[in-house]
């Protein structure tokens, strides 16, 4: 396989460029997940403040989700459950960020978060009919 790595540093040799790339690669999967999973890559902001706040907020949200998952969930049980539902995931050893997102979404929906207190006679804001996706992440 041939790799093409680009740099603006014309003084750097091939070993230096490859080493810099290896340092950077460790954070790239997190960046890709933050853009795809939290929607930061699809933001349509126009004001300067909104542009400056959107991506950091998305990454903060992603970090909080990972912390919540580490504290509140059982990753080993999630992997066993995933393998039983999806036998093609025989080698899956750790939960993906999308699995964490699905678990958080399910917990939030199960909690029926809304602004109406239980003593009010209003229907729930989130009902089974409004759920758009119960599919779990891959």
Note the gap between the termini. 28 Å
Helix-strand pattern, N to C? HHHHH
The helix tally amounts to 5
Helix content: 40-55%
Number of E-type strands: 0
Q: DSSP strand (E) fraction?
A: under 5%
How many domains? The number is: 2
The chain-level structural class is mainly alpha
Give the low-pLDDT segments: 133-138
Main β-sheet, in a few words?
Answer: none
Gross morphology is flat
Question: What number is the mean pLDDT?
Answer: 78
Query: What is the radius of gyration?
Result: 21 Å
The oligomeric state is single chain
Topology:
Layout: H1 14-25, H2 28-37, H3 48-72, H4 75-85, H5 97-111
Helix pairs in contact: 2-3, 3-5
Descriptive overview:
The protein has 5 helices and no strands. It is mainly α and 138 residues long. Helix 2 (28-37) packs across helix 3 (48-72) and helix 3 crosses helix 5 (97-111). The protein starts with 13 loop residues before the first helix and ends in a 27-residue tail after the last helix. Residues 133-138 have low confidence and may be disordered.
Short note summarizing the structure:
This protein has helices at 14-25, 28-37, 48-72, 75-85, 97-111.
Keywords:
single chain; 138 residues; mainly alpha; 5 helices; 53% helix
